[in-house]
Design a protein that fits this description.
This is Calcium ion binding protein. The chain is an all-alpha fold. It contains seven helices and two strands; from the N terminus they run H-H-H-E-H-H-E-H-H. It has a two-stranded antiparallel ribbon with strand order 1-2. Helix 4 runs antiparallel to helix 5.
């Protein structure tokens, strides 16, 4: 009982936990018959899908295709005995916690009250009387999701135009 309680306070030591997780991931990775880059890419994406579905609340960004291509080139050149260490190093380098940017956070906080205010104002206009039929429970989440999607798309288009020459 004391041992399990000590784990509850501190958790497993980080090196043991990383070793355990990476060993399990590597075993899952090696079980797949990887012959070409597409299979390698699918195996890496499957690992990140497993991460994101298994860990509640935390989501990890998958590495870019260029990083995976570089890893695949190194993977092919690495001898069989050192592939596990190569895989562990790649995962440690490329596993990044997904972060919510400030614009999405502000939009998520500001949009629901703004949607309610807009709905109340629109109900008084004779041209938009039909908006009274839409319940608040449907209107507010829909407006919030649309606002978040537009922020994400706008941000992606803006950053995409900056990134490409």
């Amino acid at each position: 009982m004391g041992m399990s309680m000590s784990f509850m306070g501190k958790g497993l030591p980080s090196t043991q936990m990383v070793s355990f997780v990476m060993g399990t991931l590597y075993k899952q990775f090696v079980e797949k018959d990887i012959q070409n880059f597409d299979e390698f890419h699918m195996a890496i994406l499957d690992i990140f899908n497993t991460f994101n579905s298994a860990l509640p609340g935390r989501h990890y960004d998958a590495p870019s295709r260029k990083e995976i291509e570089a890893c695949f080139a190194g993977w092919k050149e690495t001898p069989e005995s050192k592939r596990k260490q190569f895989f562990v190093d790649f995962m440690k380098k490329c596993v990044n916690l997904s972060r919510l940017d400030d614009s999405a956070m502000v939009t998520g906080v500001v949009t629901p009250p703004a949607a309610m205010a807009a709905k109340r104002a629109a109900e008084n206009l004779p041209q938009l009387k039909i908006i009274k039929v839409v319940p608040d429970v449907v209107f507010v989440p829909t407006a919030t999701v649309l606002a978040l999607a537009s922020v994400k798309l706008t941000r992606r288009m803006f950053l995409g135009s900056i990134a490409s020459p």
